[in-house]
Amino acid sequence: MGQFSISDLEQLSGIKAHTIRMWEQRYGILQPVRTSTNIRTYCDEDLRRLLNVATLCARGHRISRIAQLAPEELSQAVISCCDDVQDYCQQVNSLLAAMLEMDERRLCYLLNTAIKELGFEEAIMRVAYPFLQRIGVMWQAGSVNPAQEHLVTNLLRQKMMVAIDALPPVAPSEARRWVLFLPEGEMHELALLFMNYVLRARKQHVLYLGQNLPTAELKSVCETYRPHALCTVMTALPERDRVQNFVEQVHSLCPEVMLYLYGPLAQQVGLRLPANTVRVRLMTDFLALAGRLCTCCEAAPAA
Question: Is a pLDDT exceeding 90 seen at residue 198?
């Protein structure tokens, strides 16, 4: 069970702390407990209720009426309310509430609606990424269990695979060629899958090697496939003190190929980048890069 401060609830729900405190005192929306030093702490159920309350308030419901709803009525009201695809914060709150309740049907509905109305890339950038960032905060607080995290990750992976599969094929001889892979032992795949989609949607050819690739395999891959670029995401691995060695090893195996690095471990201070190596700080930077390469390829087809 997670324990949250009121500032945690503010960050996770988007509702100001003074508003939460007022709702608590006036309407009994939440039931915090106090520590021995008289500090309020909130549990998972408080967070679930606040997320649902925030969703209904964003749809124009009066807090005085919401406060009268039983837990089942509150959840049903959230499910039945019309989703505004432009209200990204409300959509993220709805996704978080559905995740906490392990409501797969609701999660699928919310993700499918966002993708249908916004388009795949916009839905990922404006809804799914903020959703995952909130989950990260909750994970640190101990309020997300592995089952909930796996539920969300696998649903998003499924949506990405479907979107990738729907793209028209591109001949490698007619496009810029990429190899996408995760370092040995690395299993966090969502960012790499999205990059796969982004490149393919811009008519780049991608050799997607996925999770847990032994680094030594890159030499034969590059000799056979002759890529223009490699791209990898470092989230949990290599170990922080081995990142420099990993980057240098990849460069030594494929010295003539551009290498793009993304993920938390790629951003560490003091990392020395070999020639032909670029650190991508934000996913929006990668989108811009892919867009520029697409324009260049249209102007001058790849050899």
Answer: yes
H or E segment to which residue 34 belongs:
strand 33-34
Between residues 68 and 124, the one the model is more confident about? 124
* Whether residues 154 and 19 fall in one domain: yes
Q: Are both 145 and 27 inside the same structural domain?
A: yes
State how many domains the chain has.
2
Q: Is 297 helix (H, G, I), strand (E, B) or coil?
A: helix
Nearest in space to 116 (alpha carbons), one of 58, 80, 159, 164: 159
Judgement on whether residues 29 and 122 belong to the same structural domain of the protein: yes
Same domain, 132 and 273: no
User: pTM of the entire structure?
Assistant: 0.71
Terminal CA-CA length for the chain: 57
Length of the chain: 303
Integer Rg of the chain from CA? 22
Residue 1 inside a domain? The answer is no
**Does residue 286 belong to any structural domain of this protein?**
yes
Domain range enclosing 20: 6-164
Tell me the pLDDT tens digit for each residue of 119-154.
999 999 988 988 888 787 666 556 678 888 889 999
The torsion of the CA quartet 128, 205, 180, 130, rounded to 10 degrees, works out to -10
Alpha helices in the chain (DSSP H): 6-13, 17-27, 44-58, 63-66, 71-80, 88-100, 104-118, 120-123, 129-141, 146-165, 190-201, 217-225, 243-253, 283-299
